[in-house]
Design goal:
3-stranded antiparallel sheet; 14 strands; disordered N terminus; RNA-binding
RNA sequence: GUGGGCGUAGCGUAGCGGUUAACGCGCCAGGUUGUGGCCCUGGAGACCGAGGGUUCAAAUCCCUCCGUCCACCCCA
């Protein structure tokens, strides 16, 4: 039998691995989170910005750090037809800083407060709360170095969680120093680890070379004693960093925000300086981080801009929604139609579509029945839709107008 | 990248070697009804993830692949 004789069925496609369709029944959750995010950001004076979902690859490759997992194995890289090397954005900050520079926002009153909501992409193995395309709310306060802003963005995220009805979470906080004090600390850390290299895991040997700070958050059992005995970063902080952290803590205290200091907390992206923080749900499990961020005072310079401090965070919609469901928060349902119009004859159908338009103009949410169905089917449909009222147009109603 | 679980109608499941693959929900049609819901009847819908193998016989056993979920890692 030749292939011409057996017509092959068209292939059925599924959404690509690690992506998901957001179906109508999930939309109330998305709307709930999005509305709350916009409301809270605006209440803090943040203005919305949206950047393209892809950028010149260098925007991310140069900023996140070549040894970071994001750059090393998770970025979607592609060359377009004009031979430009582009990257689907894996995170939200570097591209917003690119826009800050490109549009001369340094000449606006500082700090510039920005927020954005959109998809990010990372090639990673999917699991609960982890997707190759996920949606983040990002918030950035750019152009001022005071710890007031560190506290402000943390407060903003706390406020959002409260607004969403999420009560069970912990704020982890740390400071990882800056260009002044971190090099000395890194030297001390290397000196400490050098004789231990034969005992630690392969990843740690790599970290030793490329990103020593991350030695601190190795989860391998065999490395734990090394981690425990490592010199403490907090002992090496310069006066400016120590003072910044103290000020941040004073602001947080004033705001009554409780947190735990976790000296092991180190972020996966290289551009962070001083403040780093993560929000964790109490219920441990897959998606351990509900939101995280920190200060990135050198980032704008890395992208060719003037020295510009900044602080911000990202929080994932999918994970927020998982926790909203887990904590039993109820969200407003999609509104049911106020009017359902049933019709019994072809002539009545004509009248029905006209009535539908008129009713919508009057502000009702209206569903007109599909043609050719029995009245029983139409009424059943009206009921399934939860319509408040049903109008029925039959021969009599047509005749009487 | 590493490990484990699972893939049977749109969804949730049963069947785990023997003839037309079952049930619930949903969908469609009809009956009943004071036009819906409830109840009753009927119907459509599955080459049992894909390919190969074992067997007289495979959804059922074996192998490979793919997908998916969960965990590690990483992170939102």
């Amino acid at each position: 039998m030749t292939s011409a004789e057996q017509p092959s069925k068209p292939r059925k496609f599924a959404a690509p691995r690690g992506t998901a369709d957001i179906l109508p029944e999930d939309w109330p959750y998305w709307k709930y989170v999005r509305d709350a995010a916009e409301r809270v950001c605006e209440s803090f004076g943040y203005r919305r910005i949206e950047t393209p979902i892809f950028e010149h690859a260098g925007v991310f490759l140069r900023t996140s750090g070549e040894s970071s997992d994001i750059v090393a194995k998770e970025v979607y890289l592609f060359e377009d037809r004009g031979h430009d090397m582009l990257a689907l954005r894996p995170e939200g900050t570097a591209n917003v800083m690119r826009a800050y520079i490109e549009h001369g926002m340094a000449s606006l009153p500082q700090p510039v407060r920005l927020f954005y909501i959109g998809p990010n992409f990372r090639y990673d193995r999917p699991q609960a709360g982890r997707y190759r395309q996920h949606t983040q709310l990002g918030v950035e306060a750019v152009g001022d170095a005071d710890a007031l802003l560190d506290a402000e963005v943390i407060d903003l995220l706390v406020t959002l969680f409260r607004e969403l009805g999420l009560s069970e979470f912990t704020v982890k906080l740390n400071t990882i120093g800056d260009q002044t004090c971190r090099p000395a600390y890194v030297d001390a850390l290397r000196s400490y680890y050098r004789p231990l290299l034969s005992q630690v895991c392969d990843d740690c040997r790599m970290r030793f070379e490329k990103n020593p700070l991350r030695l601190l958050d190795c989860k391998e059992q065999r490395c734990q004693s090394a981690v425990a005995g490592a010199p403490r970063l907090h002992g090496h902080l310069c006066d400016a960093c120590r003072e910044h952290f103290a000020r941040l803590r004073a602001y947080l205290a004033a705001l009554d925000i409780t947190y735990v200091i976790d000296e092991q907390l180190v972020r996966g992206i290289d551009y962070y300086t001083r403040t780093v923080f993560e929000f964790h749900p109490h219920e441990e499990g897959a998606q351990s981080s509900l939101g995280s961020g920190g200060r990135y005072d050198g980032l704008v310079e890395l992208l060719g801009g003037p020295p510009t401090p900044g602080v911000g965070f990202g929080t994932g919609f999918e994970r927020l929604i998982i926790n909203i469901k887990r904590q039993g928060v109820s969200v407003p349902p999609t509104p049911a139609p106020s009017l359902y119009i049933a019709h019994l004859t072809p002539g009545a159908a004509l009248a029905a579509v006209k009535l539908g338009r008129a009713a919508r103009l009057a502000g009702l949410q209206v569903v007109v029945a599909a043609a050719g169905r029995s009245l029983k089917a139409q009424m059943r449909h009206a009921d399934a839709k939860g319509a408040a009222f049903a109008a029925i147009i039959g021969a009599d109603e047509l005749a009487s107008g």
